[in-house]
């Protein structure tokens, strides 16, 4: 039973009651008596006001709490206002006495426009399109007006029909009009675009239509997807399609046990039917009664604003406001009177696109999903749980078997439907993906269905569980299901980053002897000691090596510990672990090398040092010197000096990052063999100790050929002075061995080598060494032996000098030419070519049709003569020829 508090009368109110709402769908919240006789009632959704007209032609404006805002007296002096409708924030349309329509501005209380009609039967206002539709007798007239600033009505269309129209409904989205004629038993649908009339299916039976002729008008009610037509106790429902035109096909038919006086709707879900004694709230889908509100007086007027309330005025001039309860109470009422599905249907029809709506709908959907689950409709229930992000704890707990819930000492019972476990797997995989995505988002929120938002609270049940609890629950349950339905799926879970409960996984895998999966699980959990011990117990060296290859430098000590026995069995295992590993390049090199030193294995030291120096390009002196020491050790220990290690030492001495001086003194203080001398030569050459290189080549190795090549190399890589100095040293060494042929050979090669055309040989010093005897043991050269070589050398050097001078002259000329060109471009002026102009090359006239070429000096010639003129310019440069010389000319 309702209770209420009475407040003393104020203003225009005779009595005012504010009622305390209960959990009904509609509750009476305000009930008051007006001190005037009302003639029309309208609720404006534009600026949230209530408009009531009085019998004396005045208009009263109220807010939604029925507080008087404004009174506009005597809007109509002679006549009764039958209807009022707002078209914008200040303009209302009034029609009265069914013979005149008035556009009235309530802000300045002035009439803007008045249209006289003989008989207005009905009208519709299309606020979204700015249209006014009026029916009068057998006409439908369409007017257009500006919504923002009213500047008058403009008639745009007019349609004439055979019978008088007493009622119509303009279907705005379809550009169609429902027509109720005065003398017809049918409703017709008129299509404005095609000018066609369609007869609506009305379930005629025994030649008696439910729309039989009588004085009662039809009630026409349009919702977002339905059209409802009622007459007497008959109700027809037609389905409207958002994209297709209304085709007039009947959807449902209902027979009421009352005769409605008024109809309206709320929330696009409830039908409000008013009879002489009650207000009924019915479900729009099946017309099941949800609430009945008794009334004491006959209701004369009714209007509603969707999602909020309805207003009624009865014959005793009492205005009543019936407000909607909150959504939770309405859902509870629907669920109690009908079903959970109806509550869901109610929420899905609401235009509540916010997170609160999503949460309410989610709760109902999950409840419904549980009902389906208990009916063993696993597929549909899991689809609902996934779509509406059910808490994994709620869904997992639906499975009664203790094996799934976490009792590891239990085996799955026979009553578990493995098919249902497959659907649970699908749920957990999807929820796992969404949860991980949520954790990676910036604010831990993801937009979801109908402007809903997924938050962590949906998974943790508002903080009841932690994030890790959710992860452990999902992954451990997935693991348990895999162990029941398909053991082959376990590997895909334990090899990934997972949050499975370790004790559960280890126990199950050991019981099922799934050792490979257990090793992978240990690895994922970084429990490497247990994994390696397990592989040792299994005597699985192959997988033990593979496991060690998966470890990085952070676990290097562990790798060293478990690789020792493997290397003692086969030293090639060290290569697999420390070189073939994908993490080998990041190992701490000194630690690995010291490990091999402790094993006293020179071979592994050499292999590892070659790897880090050649493959990883390590330049440290320590590693390079260490590798050189091992090479020398193996070379010296071989029965005969091994060519393999000699080649290794040669290549390493040539390019290795070694300490040259220390290794020179360490290994080559007193070389004995030619191999040792040649190795020493490599270091001396890298130290640029050229005289020692030449001395060893001539004195120790008797290798004048390489000595000559070495001098030629010096002329290429060193400056002329250094190379010439060492040439004299070589000549002296060759003279000391009385090797005239080698001296002549080197002088000849140096004079004929085009690569060395720019060198300047020290001729005077060479002659001093060769012609003047230095010792009785050295036979000096005769002039005739050297004449041709010396002349060739002098000529070559003279030619080089002239070419150098010539190059300088040409460079200067090019610079002058460039400057002249630039100067000519700066002083460029138009050249006038007329019929009297001639070409300087061929002497012919330059006609208007000639193709011409202009030179920087200003000359203009025929295009075909340009090459000849260009050659003429080049010939202006004359250079002297080289003069032949003889030795006597010096």
UniProtKB/TrEMBL annotation:
InterPro entries: Vam6/VPS39/TRAP1, VPS39/TGF_beta_rcpt-assoc_1, VPS39/TGFA1_Znf, WD40_repeat_dom_sf. Keywords: Membrane. GO terms for cellular component: endomembrane system; fungal-type vacuole membrane. Its main location: membrane. GO terms for biological process: autophagy; endosomal vesicle fusion. The keyword ATP-binding does not apply. It is a peripheral membrane protein. Transmembrane segments: none annotated. Residues 832-868 form the Vacuolar sorting protein 39/Transforming growth factor beta receptor-associated zinc finger domain. The keyword Membrane applies. Residues 474-565 form the Vacuolar sorting protein 39/Transforming growth factor beta receptor-associated domain. SUPFAM superfamilies: WD40 repeat-like. It holds the Pfam family Vps39_1. It is found in: Endomembrane system. Belongs to the VAM6/VPS39 family. This is CNH domain-containing protein. It comes from Wickerhamomyces mucosus.
């Amino acid at each position: 039973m309702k209770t209420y508090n009475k407040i003393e009368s104020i203003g225009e109110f005779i009595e005012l009651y504010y009622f305390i709402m209960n959990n009904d769908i509609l509750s009476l919240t305000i009930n008051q008596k007006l001190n005037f006789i009302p003639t029309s009632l309208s609720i404006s959704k534009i600026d949230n006001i209530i408009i009531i007209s009085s019998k004396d032609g005045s208009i009263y404006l109220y807010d939604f709490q029925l507080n008087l805002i404004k009174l506009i007296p005597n809007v109509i002096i002679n006549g009764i206002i039958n209807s009022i409708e707002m078209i914008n924030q200040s303009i209302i349309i009034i029609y009265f006495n069914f013979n005149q329509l008035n556009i009235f501005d309530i802000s300045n209380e002035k009439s803007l426009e008045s249209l006289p009609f003989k008989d207005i039967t009905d009208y519709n206002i299309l606020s979204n399109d700015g249209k006014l539709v009026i029916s009068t007798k057998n006409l439908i007239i369409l007017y257009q007006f500006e919504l923002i600033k009213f500047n008058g009505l403009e008639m745009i269309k007019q349609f004439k029909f055979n019978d008088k129209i007493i009622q119509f409904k303009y279907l705005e989205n379809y550009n169609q009009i429902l027509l109720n004629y005065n003398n017809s038993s049918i409703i017709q649908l008129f299509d404005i675009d095609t000018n066609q009339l369609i007869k609506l299916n009305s379930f005629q039976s025994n030649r008696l239509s439910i729309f039989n002729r009588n004085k009662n008008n039809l009630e026409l009610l349009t919702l977002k997807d339905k059209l409802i037509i009622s007459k007497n106790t008959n109700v027809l429902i037609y389905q409207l399609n958002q994209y297709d035109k209304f085709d007039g096909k009947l959807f449902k038919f209902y027979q009421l046990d009352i005769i409605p006086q008024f109809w309206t709707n709320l929330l696009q879900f409830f039908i409000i039917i008013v009879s002489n004694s009650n207000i009924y709230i019915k479900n729009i889908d099946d017309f099941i009664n949800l609430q009945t509100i008794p009334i004491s007086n006959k209701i004369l007027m009714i209007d509603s604003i969707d999602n909020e309330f309805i207003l009624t005025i009865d014959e005793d001039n009492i205005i009543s406001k019936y407000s909607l309860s909150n959504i939770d109470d309405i859902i509870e009422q629907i669920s109690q009177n009908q079903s959970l599905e109806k509550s869901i249907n109610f929420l899905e029809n609401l235009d509540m696109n916010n997170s609160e709506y999503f949460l309410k709908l989610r709760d109902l959907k999950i409840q419904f999903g549980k009902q389906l689950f208990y009916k063993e409709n696993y597929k549909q229930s899991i689809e609902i749980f996934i779509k509406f992000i059910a808490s994994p704890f709620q869904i997992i707990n639906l499975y009664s078997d203790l094996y799934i819930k976490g009792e590891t000492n239990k085996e799955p019972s026979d009553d578990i439907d493995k098919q249902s476990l497959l659907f649970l797997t699908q749920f957990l995989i999807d929820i796992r993906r969404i949860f991980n995505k949520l954790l990676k988002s910036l604010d831990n929120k993801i937009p979801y269905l109908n402007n809903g938002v997924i938050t962590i609270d949906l998974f943790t049940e508002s903080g009841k569980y932690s994030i890790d609890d959710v992860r452990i629950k999902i992954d451990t349950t997935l693991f348990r299901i895999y162990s029941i339905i398909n053991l082959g799926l376990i590997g895909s879970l334990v090899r990934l980053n997972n949050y499975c409960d370790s004790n559960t996984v280890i126990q199950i895998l050991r019981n099922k002897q799934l050792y490979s999966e257990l090793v992978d699980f240990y690895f994922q959990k970084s429990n490497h000691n247990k994994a390696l011990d397990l592989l040792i117990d299994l005597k699985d060296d192959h997988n033990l090596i593979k496991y060690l290859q998966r470890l990085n430098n952070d676990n290097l000590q562990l790798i060293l510990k478990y690789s020792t026995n493997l290397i003692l069995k086969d030293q090639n295992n060290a290569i697999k672990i420390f070189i073939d590993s994908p993490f080998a390049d990041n190992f701490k090199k000194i630690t690995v090398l010291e490990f091999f030193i402790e094993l006293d294995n020179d071979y592994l030291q050499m292999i590892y040092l070659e790897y880090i120096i050649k493959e990883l390009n390590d330049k440290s002196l320590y590693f390079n010197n260490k590798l050189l020491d091992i090479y020398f050790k193996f070379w010296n220990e071989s029965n005969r000096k091994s060519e393999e290690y000699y080649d290794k030492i040669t290549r390493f001495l040539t390019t290795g990052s070694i300490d040259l001086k220390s290794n020179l003194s360490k290994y080559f203080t007193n070389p004995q063999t030619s191999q040792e001398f040649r190795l020493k030569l490599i270091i001396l050459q890298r130290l640029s100790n050229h005289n020692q290189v030449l001395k060893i080549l001539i004195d120790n190795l008797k290798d004048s050929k390489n000595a000559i090549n070495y001098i030629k190399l010096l002329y290429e890589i060193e400056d002329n002075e250094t190379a010439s100095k060492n040439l004299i040293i070589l000549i002296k060494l060759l003279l000391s061995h009385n090797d005239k042929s080698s001296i002549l050979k080197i002088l000849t090669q140096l004079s004929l080598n085009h690569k060395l055309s720019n060198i300047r040989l020290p001729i005077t010093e060479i002659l001093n060494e060769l012609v003047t005897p230095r010792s009785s043991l050295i036979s000096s050269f005769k002039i005739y032996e050297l004449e041709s070589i010396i002349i060739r050398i002098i000529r070559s050097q003279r030619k080089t000098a002239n070419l150098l001078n010539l190059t300088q002259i040409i460079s200067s000329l090019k610079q002058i030419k460039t400057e002249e060109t630039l100067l000519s471009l700066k002083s460029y002026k138009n050249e006038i070519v007329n019929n009297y102009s001639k070409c300087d090359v061929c002497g012919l006239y330059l006609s208007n049709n000639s193709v011409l070429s202009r030179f920087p000096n200003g000359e203009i010639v025929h295009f075909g003569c340009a090459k000849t003129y260009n050659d003429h310019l080049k010939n202006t440069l004359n250079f002297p020829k080289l003069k032949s010389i003889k030795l006597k000319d010096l």
